[in-house]
């Protein structure tokens, strides 16, 4: 999973920086301060989890297994659902997209739980 997680980390990191710059320069005069803050929340979570994917790429070589892989998959799903729904909400104004956001948050939580379980299992022989 090293290559896949590295590529996903690079993609989400690249697009996160690009979307952050877009918000700071292209949206600051078009969105309300509340919507701009929501957009930035999406960017922050995307970038944090892009870094988490980078760490998982390295970890997947040292500690291969289903839990590490599941954590990476859950982080990707979380980025798409959580950050993606916040981007869609702010850019479209359709508040229904906000219903999707908690599912992305749940995916992040499941990913972190999988990582925690993988760490717990390291001590077992």
From TrEMBL:
<dbReference type="GO" id="GO:0005886">
    <property type="term" value="C:plasma membrane"/>
</dbReference>
<feature type="transmembrane region" description="Helical">
    <location>
        <begin position="96"/>
        <end position="120"/>
    </location>
</feature>
<dbReference type="Pfam" id="PF04241">
    <property type="entry name" value="DUF423"/>
</dbReference>
<dbReference type="InterPro" id="IPR006696">
    <property type="entry name" value="DUF423"/>
</dbReference>
<feature type="transmembrane region" description="Helical">
    <location>
        <begin position="47"/>
        <end position="63"/>
    </location>
</feature>
<keyword id="KW-1133">Transmembrane helix</keyword>
<keyword id="KW-0472">Membrane</keyword>
<protein>
    <submittedName>
        <fullName>DUF423 domain-containing protein</fullName>
    </submittedName>
</protein>
<keyword id="KW-0812">Transmembrane</keyword>
<comment type="similarity">
    <text>Belongs to the UPF0382 family.</text>
</comment>
<feature type="transmembrane region" description="Helical">
    <location>
        <begin position="70"/>
        <end position="90"/>
    </location>
</feature>
């Amino acid at each position: 999973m090293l290559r896949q997680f590295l590529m996903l980390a690079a993609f989400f990191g690249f697009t996160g920086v690009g979307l952050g710059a877009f918000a700071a320069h292209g949206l600051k005069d078009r969105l309300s301060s509340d919507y701009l803050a929501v957009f930035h929340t999406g960017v922050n979570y995307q970038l944090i989890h892009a870094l988490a994917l980078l760490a998982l790429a390295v970890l997947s070589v040292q500690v291969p297994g289903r839990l590490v892989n599941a954590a990476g998959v859950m982080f990707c799903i979380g980025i798409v659902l959580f950050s993606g729904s916040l981007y869609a909400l702010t850019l479209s104004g359709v508040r229904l997209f906000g219903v999707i956001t908690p599912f992305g948050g749940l995916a992040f939580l499941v990913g972190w739980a999988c990582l925690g379980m993988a760490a717990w299992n390291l001590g077992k022989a």
